[in-house]
Amino acid sequence: MENTEEVTYDAGPSLAEPQAETPRSRGPTLTETEFADLPIPAPIQRGLDDLGFARCTPIQSKTLPYSLQGRDVAGQAQTGTGKTAAFLITIFKELLETDRSHATAPRAVVVAPTRELALQIAKDADNVGKHCHFRTVAVFGGMDWEKQAKVLEGKVDLVVGTPGRMMDYMRRKMLDLQHVQVAVIDEADRMFDMGFVDDIRYILQNCARDRQTLLFSATLSYDVMTLANRYLRDVVEIKVDPERVAAETVEQTLFHVAERDKLPLLLAILEKYKPKRALIFVNTKRAGEWLDFKLYHNGWEAQLMSGDVAQKKRMKLVEDFRAGDIEVLVATDVAARGLHVDDVDLVVNYDIPTDAEDYVHRIGRTGRAGQSGRAITLADEGLVEYLPAVEKYLGNKIPAEFASPDMFIEDLSPSFAATMRLQAKHGAKKRPVRRRN
Hints:
Blueprint: E1 5-9, H1 42-51, H2 58-67, E2 73-76, H3 83-97, E3 108-111, H4 115-128, E4 136-139, H5 145-151, E5 158-161, H6 163-171, E6 182-185, H7 188-193, H8 197-205, E7 212-217, H9 222-231, E8 236-240, E9 250-256, H10 262-273, E10 278-281, H11 285-297, E11 302-305, H12 311-323, E12 328-331, E13 346-349, H13 356-363, E14 373-379, H14 387-394, E15 400-401, H15 416-426
Parallel strand pairs: 1-8, 2-7, 2-8, 3-5, 3-6, 4-5, 6-7, 9-14, 9-15, 10-12, 10-13, 11-12, 13-14
Helix pairs in contact: 2-3, 3-4, 6-8, 13-14
């Protein structure tokens, strides 16, 4: 990288006209820049109009003027800020205005760290590019290898995938990235966390040399910028609200509570706010199984999503959660990133995360795209030791409230351990009738 420009932008208050207020929404945080003011081709603009997108978010307003000119960009922005639309618009403009150099090989590639995020990006591509008529293919682990291989057959315009599955197809000569015009690395910091950096290097090294490259990350750390310096050219470095770690649209609350009282308090919180969609985060699969069982038997339509849940079932859980068929999704940090579901009313950290950065990613599942959200953390005696690191990372204290005795709701569920023993003995799988009306 020879030249680097840095653009830092503080979004400040919303410049958009206030939209209709709802209990969950204060209107999107947008800039005065309209998509119609940018050199966006008509088919893409029609897709944006269909989605109701008129004004740009801060990351879009600062990225698009450069990326639409073909510049490489390293962008820092938190989850839910609209960066996916920014790089999809850039990709589709390039594809609309240039000719194919190969009959079937992909012309653009997006690499994402998780299956859920890859699937969501592909879905967003279908929506933004609705009138462009490009073929988008998603490839990721956890699904039938042969079936996904077949989707790569024939003409492909955009491939979205996770590093491991993409590299597998590349090494078998089933995925050729030598004709890629735009390459995107999304959530680059997460790639480092998950040990994918060598995979990313391999993928970029096997893309066309004259491509445009866009990199997005929650933090532009030394490691991320080292990667950018190696693979991006004449890069523009964009930081949107670099000092603002957690979205201001999320109302955060902390309760100090004994471990034995966490479930009764959680039941009271759910009963108070009656969320249409709530995400409850735990640190381990075992804790998730216990909490899923307890919530279900206290009358909440709850399900568990953890790392060892089969991919097809995980996809079904996300769709059911999005459709409102699941009220409460109990999740380990496998869902902290890449799970994009609109209108999540409430996020609860049933367990304080052991990694401070995970706290931000968890609460980022609510308050997305400027909507107001609520995040509540339960700090028990066993995990409170991780709270100082979380607050140091945030740069401020989480507002704490006192849980009075009348705030607890009695747990009406049967014993988890006893029920599991009975099921193991008799092979019963069906859950007993729930008690909540």
